[in-house]
Amino acid sequence: MLYEAKLCGVKFSPASIVLIYQHMENKKIRKRIIPLRNFSKYSDYSLAAERLKNNPQHRGYLEAVSQSQLEKLHIILQDHMQGYRLQHSLASFHLDPDQDLNKLDDEELACKKGQMDELFEKNQKRKDDADFVYDLEVDFSKSTR
After folding, report:
1. β partners of residue 34
2. Where are the alpha helices (DSSP H) in the chain?
3. Which residues of 94-118 are buried (b: 16+ CB within 10 A; e: fewer)?
């Protein structure tokens, strides 16, 4: 890998992905602005993110950026194009344990399930982890004082 992505963000006008990366040979930190020319508020964000990641011109730079992160950036841009504020877009990525998932449509439900899977993978303890305990039993009953 010739480039290491450090930060990734969006620019609203014109709609672009902003990537701060480090060139691994000379250790210089640079900024790359990737314009999203054919992206609109009606575009499929997952397909657009996949196309961007597989684009030969940007593939080397975006190799370390996950597909889900690119999708989130596209969702933020799409929400901005539809007139939503940034806080609304960021709140949609937050998992609310009290939210009734039965009331969501199929696309939103799939997004929430993807977020839950990602969170589970991040918090999962594996056999190779230093703090792994086999057959751990935890009592979740509330203590009364």
Report:
1. 17
2. 45-54, 67-81, 86-92, 106-123
3. eeeeeeeeeeeeeeeeebbeebeee
